[in-house]
Amino acid sequence: MADLNLACVVGARPNFMKMAPLLRALEGYPHVRPLLIHTGQHYDENLSDVFFEELGIRRPDVSLEVGSGSHGVQTARVLERFEEVLRQGTPDGERFDRVVVVGDVNSTMAATLAGVKLGVPVAHVEAGLRSFDRSMPEEINRIVTDSICDILLVSEPAGLQNLRREGHPDGRLHLVGNVMIDTLKWLLPKARARDTLSRFALEPGQYGLVTLHRPANVDTPQTLSPLLDVLIDTSRELRLVFPIHPRTRQRLQQFDLIGKLDAAENLTELPPLGYLDFLALSSGARLIVTDSGGLQEESTVLGIPCLTARPNTERPVTVDEGTSTLVGNDPAKLRQALRDVLDGRYKQGRPPALWDGRAAGRIAEILANSGSPTSNLPTPTEKKGNHE
Length: 388
Ligand code: UD1
Description:
By secondary structure, the protein is an alpha/beta fold. Helices cover about 45% and strands about 15% of the residues. Helix 4 (about 105-115) links the parallel strand 4 and strand 5 (about 120-125).
């Protein structure tokens, strides 16, 4: 089979653990040549570099360095710069045959737009998830990405249903499982062997892990402050650790809330952690409070109660079969759910089908056999003002 040149795009923290197993699985197909493009949506050492190192991802072949900005600015920069990468072609002077995007961040949507507009078929890993909440920026990214991409790689059955309802033909849909869980299964032994818990003076099962970063939770003091009050109260009974996302830290300072967090003796604030330290913490926790989509999935596989501070989820299997419960940003619901866990009244979950550590292998097979390259991009030597 002819060589298949893939432009594999990552941008923000949750993308890295999804792309890492796929790049490894593609190594089994010598005719497939993945190029790695980092948009630079996340650029901090502890939101980006540490993940490349720990997940064994090679240095990006291309860095777009888009950085922070409003949604419009961030999206526009990726669109403009990634389009240029596609137009330039590979370092060997060949065209790109496929774009591969993962997840639902701004970089995912922008790279998809650039690809389809140039006629390069786009494969979306984690397609079909819908929260039905258009106030979430990620929901817009999911809808736009899926509506125009070509190969839809789905992690849970609800994703298939959503895509069918939206009119996607079955030939484009593939239920492949969850690549994030591939990474978890691969690195769990390594994470558990680390000294993370002892470094933070934690005992397995004797602490709760908290993460919050969604605009709906952290962007107004009216929402953030009551949630913090519940957490601070809970910390008197169960030690809590809280790795704080840069967005959340900015808001805590802006709203003058950092002081009350600092004053809570049994609540430990941490900087954002690398993958291995974080997995060590999540896998040893008694419970998790989060608004992260990825952590809902990981806690389900780890069998750890997950109180999800969101009114809805695009990952319903984590609630229906897994260990997640939606508590919204309602402090009373969070308080009650925490009580249930601490009193031993919480449900048991089970890992969903195909969340078995082998999703990337299925995706690699689909991509490798995705037919002859069909890009209608000119080869770099042909391009003379086309597509202007
Ligand atoms: C993004 C994703 C979200 C994902 C999250 C994981 C979108 C719309 N959102 O949200 O789905 O769950 O990443 O972290 O794509 N910042 C830094 N250093 C960095 C990157 C960002 O300090 O390396 C700061 C920015 O200046 C900004 C804030 O963090 O103030 C938010 O960053 P941004 O990438 O815009 O969105 P996230 O909230 O991280």
